[in-house]
Specification:
Length: 336
């Protein structure tokens, strides 16, 4: 089968590998769509903190079932999305209903080989019924679920003033679900083209370009009170540290992105706000359900979010161009 392998940073190749054989309890899925995301770009550039090379990337996946164990609730030919967070089921986090934070988590495409391959063998517990969604829509569930989970972590109330820093796919997904919660959402990004896209195509009317004057602009926009909740979706340590200054007194800072290194806050600023600091990692199946229903209800314009298409075999040559054109790429989806 054709497989796209990141052999080392900046080195991608299409290799021919044997098709997988299922172990007990595993399904075989014929991969049809692969969403490309910041994680894949970071792996390609050698900037992911949890990865060893070579690696088959790909965790935003949809496809058709080719094999399931006898007695499965799934059927051959069924269109599914894949939950890429493979948890142990027994650790302290799993016992608390938080498999997304499993002590021994294995994320497809990061800790284990992922779905940039024509077929993948996975536990049937990782299958998610895509229902009436298209293959493209099913491949978009995972990245949108990241935003849905982050919003669920914040405990937003209708009317809350929310700032999302970073208007890439994860930030946009976070902004959408914050808006569904009744919040008033402002997007900030260093790239004016991304902000223009969010304004023109997704009705995010409150946007602000991030630069040296950002704190002043945000203070003026909020009468000096700042934001009830700030979501940082940049994956930048410096941006994460600065985001504390945008949180209102009594507010919440949610770190959606992850970056290698140490994050440092000024303690007086952190304490005087009585800030609630929250990490948001991966997503839960409830978040997948929430995204699926939002798409079926017509709340998420997936055709707008899906900005680029390519053949999976072209990923090695297209990846550098997608990264170079990041200002104009929201979600690229590769197909087998």
């Amino acid at each position: 089968m054709k497989t796209v392998v990141c052999r080392e940073p900046f080195s991608l190749a299409v290799e021919d590998r044997p098709s997988p054989s299922p172990k007990p309890g595993e399904a075989i899925v014929r991969i049809r769509r692969i969403g490309l995301c910041g994680t894949d770009y970071h792996i390609y550039a050698g900037r992911h903190p949890f990865l060893a090379y070579p690696r088959v990337m790909g965790h935003e996946l949809s496809g058709e079932i080719e094999h399931v164990p006898e007695g499965s609730a799934f059927r051959v030919g069924q269109v599914v999305a894949i939950n890429p967070y493979l948890a142990c089921g027994t650790c302290i986090a799993c016992r608390k209903g938080k498999p997304n934070a499993c002590v021994s988590i294995s994320v497809l495409g990061v800790h284990a080989d992922g779905g940039m391959a024509e077929r993948i063998a996975i536990p049937q517990s990782a299958l998610f019924d895509a229902g009436a969604l298209t293959l493209d829509q099913a491949a978009m569930i995972e990245f949108l679920a990241i935003g849905a989970h982050a919003v669920s972590r914040a405990g937003l109330l209708p009317g809350d003033r929310v700032l999302v820093v970073g208007a890439g796919p994860i930030g946009v997904g976070t902004g959408l679900f914050a808006r569904f919660s009744g919040a008033r959402v402002t997007l900030a990004d260093t790239r004016p083209t991304r902000l223009a896209f969010a304004r023109d195509h997704l009705a995010f009317d409150d946007t602000v370009e991030a630069g040296p004057d950002l704190p002043t602009a945000l203070a003026e926009a909020t009468g000096g009170e700042m934001f009830d909740a700030v979501f940082d979706a940049t994956g930048s340590l410096s941006a994460m540290a600065q985001s504390l200054g945008y949180v209102a007194h009594g507010g919440t800072l949610v770190l959606v992105g992850v970056a290698p290194g140490d994050l440092v806050f000024p303690d007086p600023e952190f304490h005087k706000r009585e800030t609630t600091l929250v990490a948001s990692r991966n997503a839960l199946l409830d978040d997948f359900d929430r995204v699926k229903q939002a798409i079926l209800d017509g709340l998420i314009p997936t055709d707008v979010l899906h900005t680029h298409s390519l053949k999976a075999e072209d990923i090695p040559t297209s990846m550098p161009d997608l990264i170079a054109s990041a200002d104009h790429v929201l979600k690229a989806i590769a197909r087998f």
